[in-house]
Amino acid sequence: MKVTKDTIIGDILDANADTAPFFLEIGMHCLGCPASRGETIAEACQVHGTDADALVEKLNAFFGE
Q1: CA distance to 8, 14, 44, 56, 60, per residue, from 34 (Å)
Q2: Which residue ranges make up each domain of the chain?
């Protein structure tokens, strides 16, 4: 899976639930909430005040891209 800032968080979690800690690290503790699962990486990082590019990089490294 190739992750971008426009990738939906629910799609990432569906592809591999082991990605949950990456979101928990940025304070996104409501991963089961339908609203959070529908957000993009960019939207979630903006709300949580974190760097979207850094999260994308971590996720792509995890997925082996």
Answers
A1: 12, 13, 13, 21, 23
A2: 9-63
- Token output for 29: 């503790």
pLDDT tens by residue, 6-51: 999 999 999 999 999 999 888 887 777 777 788 999 998 998 899 9
pLDDT value at 65 more than 80: no
CA distance 13 to 30: 13
| Rounded distance between C-alpha atoms, residue 58 and residue 3, angstroms | 10
Which is nearest to 23 in space by CA: 2, 1, 50?
50
Task: Tell me the chain's radius of gyration from C-alpha atoms.
Answer: 10
